[in-house]
Amino acid sequence: MASSNSGSGGTGGEKPEATGDKAAEFRATLKAQLELLGTLLVRHPGVSGTLAVAAGYFLHINALPLHWDSHDALLGLQCAVPIIALDSLLMLPDWSPGTTTKVIKLKAPKSVAEKLRQREAASRAAKDSQQQQGGREQSSAAVITAVRDADPPSRQTDVASPTSTSSNGSSSSSDSSSAVQPAAGAAGSAAGVSGGEAADEELVDIERTISVREEQHPALAALYRVQMDKAGNNVGRLLWPPLELLLLLTWHLAEEMLYRAIILTWAAGWTIDRLYEAGAEESINLLGLQLATPQAGAVLAAVGCSAVSLAVLVQRAFFPLRLISRAEEELDAREGESRAGPEVKKERARMRKVLDKVRSGMVRQRQWSTAVEGTRNVTEWAAYSTSFLLTGNLLAPYVTAVASDLLFSGYQRLRARQVDRTQQQAMASIRELHSTALALKDARKAVLQPPSVPASKSSDEEEERKGGNGSAGDSTAAPKDSSSSSASTSTSNGGSTSNGAEARAKEEASVGGSSSSSRDSE
Asked: Where is region (Disordered) located (predicted)?
């Protein structure tokens, strides 16, 4: 009864713990989201709004001329249609280049290549019953394992030879000098055979199929580049959708206050004053249109602001080209100052060709990309400014910006997922190819390294060690030999002395016997 109660109590205690863990995780995530939102609000809308309020105070311009008007809001939605259409054309289609397969060849020893083919056949058989991604990872692991396990038997012989030599060298004290030399000779011959086999092993080509991009027209390549830039250029992508909506509302309000309420209003007033100072009447004929002077001044101010923003875009886009020009100038200066040899001149000519190739490709790409981005920026600025100039209400450009940017944020999230998947697949292929190349490189080093060089070094070191031990052994063996010779001499002398004593004893015995026999006879 007690055990059943304790079990039920334990089960009832696990649910609150799990709920508590989820609540703590939610609180931590919410805290991180709010911190990120606060950082983004301070960094972007906070700066723009502060500048707008400060500039309006010093220029005596209302920084927030906003009031609700359904007609102005509807006009803002109408002005957002061109931007929405252009963003849909830019973000919805897949402008990525097609992929094609390319076969590359890697050099590898024949034994390694054979093992790779066997492993690849096994991996292809196993891949049929698995998913494509899992099969790719298994194939990569099988290839790398096969390369690392591909160790020729000759290297094992080389590794085993010094061990046998050392074991033979330490067998016994009486046979050390006679046993080490044959073992060293056997090790040297084995090393020479294995080195010849490894050095003479045939190299074969291992084919690898990789995916590469197809060539695109510069216009399509520019659309793809702008699409990738716009897909990743969303600071609110990490936020929850409600928090991102709050960020967009605050962001665009601060931007419209700065750009339309302050900059455009000041530029329009300044242009109108200049027109009146130039002697303009109540109406001006502007490109075949009869406009009032204030309207003409506002239009000219909007066009001037668009031109300035486009100039900034062009300067930013072509800044890398100026870096290449500086590099070419430095190269020319070095060529004029130094007296280089033919090899250095050849290297500089090669560098100049590379710079020219990079410049030509970059110029074409930048031109088309700048044209695409410039078209979108001019359309966006024209729509925002038109809605504001026609109404004088900041609500109209605010509705235009929010409506277009909400759809654009959805396009960014949709395209960003595809971009992430494409990048992950590309990185997986690159890592697989890189790992295979490194494994082949290690295998080639292990197989193709001539072991005769380290064997000769080891034999030389071993001979030096043996020579040192031999000299020491000779110096120690000399006393032993002298002592053994003296011992043998003393032994021989002792043997002769004992033989002489025995002879004298026999003579005395014979003398004594003869004398006794003579006495007996007497």
From this structure: 115-198, 444-522
Give the residue among 52, 399, 97 at the shortest CA–CA distance from 223.
97
Summarised one tens digit per residue, pLDDT across range 350-388 is 777 777 776 776 777 778 888 888 888 899 999 999 999
What does the radius of gyration of the chain's CA atoms come to, in whole angstroms? 47
Task: Look at residues 248, 233, 383, 236 and name the one whose alpha carbon lies nearest to residue 302.
Answer: 383
Under 8 Å CB-to-CB from 233, ≥6 apart: which residues?
A: 412
Contact residues for 45 (Cβ-Cβ < 8 A; gap 6+): 247, 250, 251, 253, 254, 255
Q: Does the CA dihedral 336-342-346-347 come out positive or negative?
A: negative
CB 382 within 8 A of CB 309: no
Beta carbons of 400 and 383 less than 8 angstroms apart: yes
Bridge partners of residue 209, in order along the sequence: 103
Q: Kindly list the domain boundaries of the chain, sorted by start residue.
A: 20-96+216-446
- Counting Cα atoms < 13 Å in the Cβ hemisphere of 212 gives 9
Exposed/middle/buried for residue 49 (C-beta within 10 Å: 0-12, 13-18, 19+): buried
Alpha-carbon distance 414 to 392, whole Å?
35
**CA 316 centroid distance within chain:** 27
Q: Are 66 and 398 in contact (CB under 8 A)?
A: yes
How far is residue 521's CA from residue 245's CA, in Å, rounded to a whole number? 155
Q: Identify which has the larger pLDDT, 456 or 63.
A: 63
